[in-house]
Amino acid sequence: MSDSYDLVVIGAGSGGVRAARIAATYGAKVAIIEEYRVGGTCVIRGCVPKKLFVYASRYKDLFEIAPSFGWDVGTPSFDWATLVANKDKEIARLEAAYVAGLEKPGAEIIRDRATVTGPNSVKLRSGRELTAKTILIATGAHPFIPDIPGKELAITSNEAFHLAQLPHSILIEGGGFISVEFATIFSGLGVHTTIVYRGDRLLRGFDEDLRVGLEAGLVARGVKIIHQTNVLGLRQTGKDITVSFSDGVDAPFGAVMFATGRSPNTAGLGLDAAGVELAWDGAVVVDPYSRSSVPSIYAVGDVTNRAQLTPVAIREGHAFADTVFGDKPTAVDHSLIGEAVFAEPEVGTVGLPEHEAATHGDIDVYVTRFRPMINTLSLKSDRMMMKLITRPGGGEVLGVHILGPGAAEIIQMAAIPLGMKATKADFDRAMAMHPTAAEELVTFKKPSYVYRGGQKQ
Ligand SMILES: Cc1cc2nc3c(=O)[nH]c(=O)nc-3n(C[C@H](O)[C@H](O)[C@H](O)COP(=O)(O)OP(=O)(O)OC[C@H]3O[C@@H](n4cnc5c(N)ncnc54)[C@H](O)[C@@H]3O)c2cc1C
Ligand SMILES: NC(=O)c1ccc[n+]([C@@H]2O[C@H](COP(=O)([O-])OP(=O)(O)OC[C@H]3O[C@@H](n4cnc5c(N)ncnc54)[C@H](O)[C@@H]3O)[C@@H](O)[C@H]2O)c1
């Protein structure tokens, strides 16, 4: 096999796989190097296994309301080992599909660790050296772990997917996506779950009503939330880990998990030697076409820290291949990225949150809260929240925020009219589907409140 390529991709995750596959389809000679498993974080230890675990955890809620529909489900029991084994089988199937998707158009998969040795050269751990007209850095990110005594006793999301058994209790540090999704998973599977967060409310930056509703929903499911507190240190005490908190309290937990953000994988990659500019956090600095400060080196996905989401990495990888190998220069538009948090209750959001929209001119806000129909026969008191933020008088829709069952699925569809700059009148023209939760989005009559000159009225 020759060692010179049109394209060498480092990292076979969401961004790298898409870029390699499309470049190969355009006729480029492509090698893609992966040190762990093809598919990357999303497939192997991110989105996909996480969502499978979320499904598993949601049975708890369903079992609770089952009697209200006449079902007697006895005392349900749960087997963690079965879930992990079935999840692993599905991940192996997906990995094989990703390998086939790369091999079909002729990309060569090299299972090794790569470092960059120059603008057009890459060295593998095995000693093999490759040259490439273009190098794509798609190495992703890794969990950031606060530098505290005993940090090695804690797990991150990486380990959470392969625990030998569920702990009796878990403390999760962080107030972002991974913290709330894993709090949902662990609490749903019967683990006493506590979140410790340095801020005053989870999911900083999200619309305030989503944040309030999410916390209420997690608490209703038995998750304890400690605010404005940090973990200062961990020590082993018998089978437990004793945590020292910044408020002076010490407490034991069966496990401790850091969900404190993810840092770009650039350390030891040789990018500095090649002259590639990195940001303060180690991210590769790129232009709108994902080109780094070295013209032959590009970067896509989490390693650029633009938005650490799989569809964004995929879009960037595809645009890179179109630009460099398809004669179609394509810049990715990062201005409207919808987000879903697969917590319980689920969060879906696209466009401006209220606190931001209110600083961008006058707005009307339509909000509704109601009991999801699936809960109406039971005593479950969860509320669903839907919010539409528009320009005054039924103008352009600026934001849609949903908390509750199906939020992610609904928001995926709401992202389409928002991208088309749809108005409230456009929403209202759609005939409602009844009975659904999403019909609320097309049947709002009067604003719940408005902002004029930045003031809520
Ligand atoms: C627990 C968790 C849940 C998530 N859930 C979601 C979700 O629901 N929705 C969503 O959109 N996003 C989710 N994400 C984020 C998503 O997984 C990432 O944004 C996405 O995987 C980024 O793709 P990437 O191609 O940039 O990097 P990755 O998918 O991380 O791929 C990078 C690859 O590069 C390899 N690599 C690194 N260095 C080298 C080297 N030197 N040599 C060879 N190979 C190397 C790594 O082994 C890895 O396979 C989640 C992330 C986590 C951790
Ligand atoms: N559903 C999804 O789309 C999904 C799910 C999981 C992860 N992701 C992606 O992966 C990224 C990483 O997830 P994450 O939850 O680790 O990151 P995050 O940025 O969402 O949250 C990190 C949290 O850790 C806290 N934190 C950071 N440094 C800290 C420190 N030194 N001490 C204490 N707390 C600290 C932050 O305040 C924040 O609350 C997300 O930003 C997201 O882009 C997406």
Automatic annotation (TrEMBL):
<keyword id="KW-0274">FAD</keyword>
<dbReference type="InterPro" id="IPR036188">
    <property type="entry name" value="FAD/NAD-bd_sf"/>
</dbReference>
<dbReference type="GO" id="GO:0034599">
    <property type="term" value="P:cellular response to oxidative stress"/>
</dbReference>
<feature type="binding site">
    <location>
        <begin position="174"/>
        <end position="181"/>
    </location>
    <ligand>
        <name>NAD(+)</name>
    </ligand>
</feature>
<keyword id="KW-0285">Flavoprotein</keyword>
<dbReference type="Pfam" id="PF07992">
    <property type="entry name" value="Pyr_redox_2"/>
</dbReference>
<feature type="binding site">
    <location>
        <position position="302"/>
    </location>
    <ligand>
        <name>FAD</name>
    </ligand>
</feature>
<dbReference type="Pfam" id="PF02852">
    <property type="entry name" value="Pyr_redox_dim"/>
</dbReference>
<dbReference type="InterPro" id="IPR016156">
    <property type="entry name" value="FAD/NAD-linked_Rdtase_dimer_sf"/>
</dbReference>
<feature type="active site" description="Proton acceptor">
    <location>
        <position position="434"/>
    </location>
</feature>
<keyword id="KW-0520">NAD</keyword>
<keyword id="KW-0547">Nucleotide-binding</keyword>
<dbReference type="InterPro" id="IPR004099">
    <property type="entry name" value="Pyr_nucl-diS_OxRdtase_dimer"/>
</dbReference>
<dbReference type="InterPro" id="IPR001100">
    <property type="entry name" value="Pyr_nuc-diS_OxRdtase"/>
</dbReference>
<dbReference type="GO" id="GO:0006749">
    <property type="term" value="P:glutathione metabolic process"/>
</dbReference>
<feature type="binding site">
    <location>
        <position position="261"/>
    </location>
    <ligand>
        <name>NAD(+)</name>
    </ligand>
</feature>
<feature type="disulfide bond" description="Redox-active">
    <location>
        <begin position="42"/>
        <end position="47"/>
    </location>
</feature>
<dbReference type="InterPro" id="IPR046952">
    <property type="entry name" value="GSHR/TRXR-like"/>
</dbReference>
<keyword id="KW-0676">Redox-active center</keyword>
<protein>
    <submittedName>
        <fullName>Glutathione-disulfide reductase</fullName>
    </submittedName>
</protein>
<comment type="similarity">
    <text>Belongs to the class-I pyridine nucleotide-disulfide oxidoreductase family.</text>
</comment>
<feature type="binding site">
    <location>
        <position position="51"/>
    </location>
    <ligand>
        <name>FAD</name>
    </ligand>
</feature>
<feature type="domain" description="Pyridine nucleotide-disulphide oxidoreductase dimerisation">
    <location>
        <begin position="339"/>
        <end position="443"/>
    </location>
</feature>
<dbReference type="GO" id="GO:0045454">
    <property type="term" value="P:cell redox homeostasis"/>
</dbReference>
<dbReference type="GO" id="GO:0004362">
    <property type="term" value="F:glutathione-disulfide reductase (NADPH) activity"/>
</dbReference>
<dbReference type="GO" id="GO:0005829">
    <property type="term" value="C:cytosol"/>
</dbReference>
<dbReference type="GO" id="GO:0050660">
    <property type="term" value="F:flavin adenine dinucleotide binding"/>
</dbReference>
<keyword id="KW-0560">Oxidoreductase</keyword>
<keyword id="KW-1015">Disulfide bond</keyword>
<feature type="domain" description="FAD/NAD(P)-binding">
    <location>
        <begin position="5"/>
        <end position="317"/>
    </location>
</feature>
<dbReference type="InterPro" id="IPR023753">
    <property type="entry name" value="FAD/NAD-binding_dom"/>
</dbReference>
<dbReference type="InterPro" id="IPR012999">
    <property type="entry name" value="Pyr_OxRdtase_I_AS"/>
</dbReference>
